[in-house]
Amino acid sequence: MPKRQDVRTAMVIGSGPIVIGQAAEFDYSGSQACRSLREEGVRVVLVNSNPATIQTDPDTADAVYVEPLTVPFLEKVIAKERPQGILSGMGGQTALNLCSELSEAGILARHGVELLGTKMEAITAGENRERFASLMRSIGEPIPRSRAVSDSASAATFVEGTGYPVIVRAAYTLGGSGSGVAHNAAELDRIVGLGLAYSRIKQVLVEESVLGWKEFEYEVMRDGADNCITICSMENLDPMGVHTGESIVVAPAQTLSDSDHRPFGPPPSGSSARSGSRADATSSSRSIRRPASTGSSK
Question: What is the Cα–Cα distance from 195 to 182, expressed in whole angstroms?
Fold first, then answer.
């Protein structure tokens, strides 16, 4: 990618306090972003409310603000420092939410600031549960049945068609906040209410459960020209329902046969893909889930 000559000053928004789902990895990524930008001659402005980080060291950026991560304060920094762009993906969920709010409030347009890296369209598609589900369906990507709702009554109506259990996922939240598994009407009402309280846009996705399915992951790198390289496949020892961080992941996958892989790519020359193979890919780049074999599900 050629260097952007029009970006002379860039802002990096940190992730704030270290919490579950947003920990030291974002301190590292933010620090490396600052170093890389400065190596290219770009002036870097860093804003982070957490002083106990490497990136808030005075030598990391040209200007360091250890201040609250709020939209009003960020606008003051933007007005003073006049950055041409903001890196939206270096501060986890916190930075993504703040960039979304800055855009929706018209602050980015008012000051002529561009989101660098992850654009607003991508943030919305990834964080708005309804938009994400619609995008997957539009490209023919199989996903569990789901519905985005903004009240408990709508959630209950959807579950009448799927039955329990269901997964409730809050939009624009961090580390599973406001999300959970509902096994009955009382749990559904409680989790939906919690999710709506946590969600920035007051939206949750109610989704049919895939608990007990086997879980596989593929790490894929893709560039702007749609060239893809599969780095590795990974297999979770435990089925869906057991958090990956509390389980064991083996790389490469051990129990997928060659024919199991074929639905996700062209079959070898001179052979035909096995009919009846079933797999659900929940994202175009990362996760593949199949029903667990007999005796493997929980």
Answer: 12
Angstrom distances, CA of residue 121 to CA of 21, 99, 117, 126:
23, 11, 11, 9
SS3 letters for 212-238? CCEEEEEEEEECCCCCEEEEEEEEECC
Determine the Cα–Cα distance for residues 253 and 289; give it in Å rounded to an integer.
12
Amino acid found at 165: P
Nearest to 18 by CA among 102, 86, 92, 99: 92
- For the segment 166-203, what is each residue's pLDDT rounded down to a tens digit? 999 888 876 677 889 999 999 999 999 999 998 888 98
What is the Cα–Cα distance from 223 to 135, expressed in whole angstroms? 19
Strands 43-47 and 63-65: parallel
- Nearest Cα residue to 48 out of 58, 36, 38: 58
Are 30 and 46 within 8 A, CB to CB? yes
d(CA 255, CA 79): 56
Nearest-angstrom CA–CA distance, 15 and 18: 8
Sequence length of the chain is 298
The residue among 45, 44, 12 whose CA lies nearest residue 29 is 12
Record the pTM. 0.67
Q: Dig out the tokens for 66 from the structure.
A: 């250890």
Q: How many CB atoms lie within 10 A of CB 102?
A: 24
Q: What is the pLDDT of residues 22-34, one digit of tens each?
A: 667 788 888 999 9
Give residue-wise pLDDT tens across range 227-271.
999 888 899 999 888 877 788 899 888 888 877 776 555 444 444
- Cβ neighbours for 272, distance < 8 A, ≥ 6 positions apart: none
Domains of the chain: 9-125 (3.40.50.20), 128-208 (3.30.1490.20), 214-264+275-290 (no CATH)
